[in-house]
Amino acid sequence: MTRSALLITGAGSGIGRAVACAAARDGWYVHATDIDHAAAAETLDRVRQRGGHGTSHGLDVTDAAAVAQTFSALDAASVPLRGLFTAAGIDSGGASHELDPAVWRRVLDVNATGTFLVVQQALEAMMHGGGSIVLCGSPAAQVGFAAGGVTAYGASKGAISSMTRTLAVDYARFGIRINAIVPGPTETPLMWANVPSADVERMRDQVAREVPLGRMAQPEEIAESVLWLLSDRASYTTGSLIGCDGGVLAKSSISV
Ligand SMILES: NC(=O)c1ccc[n+]([C@@H]2O[C@H](COP(=O)([O-])OP(=O)(O)OC[C@H]3O[C@@H](n4cnc5c(N)ncnc54)[C@H](O)[C@@H]3O)[C@@H](O)[C@H]2O)c1
């Protein structure tokens, strides 16, 4: 059986790391990349502990030259790239009327432009053989969060939603499927990036009460949906935003 490679950005933590571990179980050869190379290397250790194989790379997705260099360093001749999962992301924000434009630019740069730069390289690698690309969206692309202050993050994820649809249409004829996973609140460092540590426990309980399924997701639960999208079991699914959100987007807060 010819093995296929999956490249993951933001593989050093949270959802990206969980996808790397599940991918090893499913037989993918895993290229784990992250701006934090030590964290990506730790993910690769976990892949190997599960009997998997792969490589690790320090990669800042906003650096176009580094993205191109990382893809050209892959041994695509012996293990062709057939999968991409773009988990690299940041969440920073605040009230829009006083948001530092540098913060806006950084969030868009990492979450939207960084995703695009990586997708460009993956498309090139998959043009003659096909593949499956899974981007990382968010409910913030579709609704305003009650906590507020997520305009930059929401806009960056809105870009992911539209990229998913337009890329899917453009590259279907090359046998490349492009979808996005839309995770609900998931227990990762990013979830608490803007919450003072003293408030985390209280916020965790509050979020759990607000989610229809009554709890936050574990990254491994999101990973299962991503692995399905990456696999041939999703062979007729492209251009879709697939919710894995505990019912968050189905819920209205109107209670009367
Ligand atoms: N956790 C949630 O509740 C949630 C919900 C919806 C969507 N998401 C999305 O899931 C994705 C993964 O987030 P997570 O929750 O696992 O967060 P996380 O913080 O655990 O992981 C994000 C990873 O991205 C890496 N990263 C940050 N900037 C980078 C850059 N410039 N280049 C390369 N890597 C970079 C970080 O080092 C980190 O390892 C993100 O796109 C996030 O927006 C998360």
UniProtKB/TrEMBL annotation:
Xref: Pfam families: adh_short_C2
Gene3D superfamilies reported for this sequence: NAD(P)-binding Rossmann-like Domain (3.40.50.720)
SUPFAM superfamilies: NAD(P)-binding Rossmann-fold domains
This protein's UniProt keywords: Oxidoreductase
InterPro entries: NAD(P)-bd_dom_sf, Sc_DH/Rdtase_CS, SDR_fam
GO MF terms held by the record: oxidoreductase activity, acting on the CH-OH group of donors, NAD or NADP as acceptor
Similarity annotation: Belongs to the short-chain dehydrogenases/reductases (SDR) family.
Descriptive protein name: Oxidoreductase, short chain dehydrogenase/reductase family
Organism: Saccharopolyspora erythraea (strain ATCC 11635 / DSM 40517 / JCM 4748 / NBRC 13426 / NCIMB 8594 / NRRL 2338)
